[in-house]
Design goal:
By secondary structure, the chain is α/β, with parallel strands linked by helices. The protein has one domain: Rossmann fold, CATH 3.40.50.300. The chain has helices at about 15-30, 45-50, 60-65, 95-105, 130-145, 160-165, 170-180, 200-215, 230-240, and strands spanning about 5-10, 35-40, 75, 85, 110-115, 125-130, 150-160, 180-190. The chain has an eight-stranded mixed β-sheet with strand order 3-4-2-5-1-6-7-8, sandwiched between helices. The protein is globular.
Length: about 240
């Protein structure tokens, strides 16, 4: 029996959909059979981020209307052996989406519900940026989920180590304490992600987050590590000019 995990965004642009995809990739690399349930009912943004845009035959809207079975909406990712996608595109029945998530727990080790099917999930991961507007929104999101009886973890996304060292943004550990939430992942700022690429350090950060979520080692990526030592001191000085 697998587990459904609700991937919640603190606000638009925090990167929850990208995190759901990259977490799915990292979990699949750990050998976990993983399904990402794309909760974007209007644009199916999860399919775009994962490179599966236009490859689906059915969506949950078709399954809800009886045109196909739920399992026929599942897409296999071509590059990650254990990663699959299920688009909720066009489906207006939230209860049916939750039912699909529960059904898929019989087939997959993890079902990552990106912005949907929270009622089918036993725990949630809130994705937030380390900036004031996103942190404020995350505080509200975490409170609502906890009030609903859900266990909540936190992914701090787009964390710039140089800004942390310069005192411009709070360190991840302090942000987690502020939000009264356990940090399960710290993802460095990576401008290549919107281009469909990923840096080695970011891949490492998602791998650590996947291990944390799957019950493996509890270790977070150190975003300030690159600014330690003599070379790090040079990087700190250069930040003043770039």
């Amino acid at each position: 029996m697998g587990e459904a995990v609700y991937i919640a965004s603190s606000k638009g642009g925090a990167g929850a959909t990208t995190c759901a995809y990259r977490l799915g990739c990292a979990l699949s690399e750990l050998g976990e059979r993983t399904l990402v349930l794309d909760g974007d009912r209007v644009c199916a943004d999860g399919l775009t981020v994962s490179g599966l845009d236009g490859m689906n035959v059915y969506t949950l809207a078709d399954a809800a209307s009886g045109a196909c079975r739920i399992k026929q909406t599942v897409l296999k990712h071509g590059k990650c052996a254990n990663l699959f996608y299920m688009p909720a595109l066009g489906c207006t029945d939230g209860d049916f989406i939750a039912r699909a998530a529960r059904e898929m727990c019989d087939t997959f080790d993890f079902v990552l519900c990106d912005g949907c099917a929270s009622s089918a999930c036993g725990r949630a991961v809130v994705v937030t940026e380390p900036y004031a507007s996103s942190v404020k929104a995350a505080d509200k999101t975490v409170s609502v989920l906890k009030d609903g009886g859900m266990k909540v973890g936190l992914i701090l996304n787009k964390v710039n180590g140089g800004l942390v060292c310069g005192g411009n943004i709070m360190p991840p550990a302090d942000l987690a304490k502020l939000l009264r939430c356990e940090a399960v992942g710290v993802i460095p700022e990576d401008l290549s992600l919107p281009l469909g690429k990923i840096c080695g350090r970011t891949q490492r950060a998602f791998s650590l987050a996947a291990q944390y979520i799957s019950g493996g080692q509890k270790k977070l990526y150190g975003v300030t590590r690159a600014y330690a030592g003599p070379l790090g001191g040079i990087k700190k000085k250069l930040r003043r000019f770039v």
